[in-house]
Give the backbone structure.
Amino acid sequence: IRGRFSLRADSIVTQGARFSVLSASAVNDDSTWLVRLGTSPDDRPGGETSGSVSLRADTVAIAIDSLLVRIPGSELELQRPTRIRFDTSGTIVVDTVELRGTRGALLQLAGVVRDTGAIAVSLTVSNVPVPFAGTRGMGDSVKTRVDAQVSVGGTAREPLATLRSRVRLIEADSVSLDSIIGEVTHERGTTRLKVTAHGENRGLFLVQATGPTALSLSPFKAELPDDSITGEIAIDSLYLPSVTRLIPGIHASAGVL
């Protein structure tokens, strides 16, 4: 099978982004498609990538030769070509995907997921800027930088998972929060959650919860059984406008919890 495909669209608007130009092209030679995707250099979010998709027997191989992701506050660029492979047995293999950007921004992903046998997936995010749309949309956004570490092990039917993250608020003098820290662990059918918010050199908010969770990756399932959840909530002089500033659709002009 041989062929050529190209597409260009101008002024695409979605709920969370706007692209002034979106282009795609693909050239097929036997069992391999050479693919290029891109947006305008002025679009943020936006970016461009080139690579190939190969179909051989029971395997789909995706080769990413170049990737540039543009987001407000940074540009993340693929450091070396990488490969992602799928096969009909349910195995997914992701070679190390490493994106680096300005001010030490880093996103790194690698892992193996299969229907049977051990799995191992890791995701590292460091100093990546993420804008939170405020109550009046992106024009009222709050700048943040995110650090996160995710690891998944065990098996697809009984995964073990750990998530640790920290969101730091940048240039947000009107918000009394400095950072939000979250930790989630899942092991042997039990999930534990802890979220804390800090500001003005003290803890402002704490949520802890432990409960049963039926989690599986093959087949995918995430359910909360009809059982009790234990935990606690502690709030110490949390200024409500600081919280609602981060939640679109909700606005508070005053109030303290």
Observations:
- The radius of gyration is 22 Å.
- The first strand starts at residue 2 and ends at 13.
- The CA atoms of residues 51 and 137 lie 35 Å apart.
